Request: fold
Amino acid sequence: GEDVEQSLFLSVREGDSSVINCTYTDSSSTYLYWYKQEPGAGLQLLTYIFSNMDMKQDQRLTVLLNKKDKHLSLRIADTQTGDSAIYFCAESMRGYSSASKIIFGSGTRLSIRP
Amino acid sequence: DVKVTQSSRYLVKRTGEKVFLECVQDMDHENMFWYRQDPGLGLRLIYFSYDVKMKEKGDIPEGYSVSREKKERFSLILESASTNQTSMYLCASSDGAGGNQPQHFGDGTRLSIL
Reply:
């Protein structure tokens, strides 16, 4: 069935790199997304990658996609206290009319140690 | 930038009341979505709409209805609120062109049913 899995917690030291991992099940997914949710707020789209790409870099963010293993990762370089949040991995699936259905993981809570 | 606005950040209602949650987007997006977010359960899709006056059930539509009379506005209705509908409600919109476009979220409405 449809499933997106990610670990619940990650703790890193300020200034180190954070790597958040995600696995998904639907091989027909065309887009994979990373969203960030700060306390009390909605989800903010951080970045997304087409399924025909292996990597995408955007400033401190690097997304790696391994289609064979259905594995997606988000690397945050030089992690700062402002990066503390919950990070959601998500995959898109066609099926509902012209609207894409997005399946979200349960989120990884990233905490930063001084 | 895409702007998705939810009318209330916090709302407190009583059991049995009819509750309206409003969402407006300013990007002329075809698709709009309502989710609820609960600890340990992630985001669950309640209803979505891919056009004015069109609606489709998501994964957990029971106890809810929706209205899309204008393209920019998507309302979630709790016909007779119950305590198990206490949750964080998130609205999102996406461009319908080609499908699989990323969803953009509002800041959420934290609803408490007493």
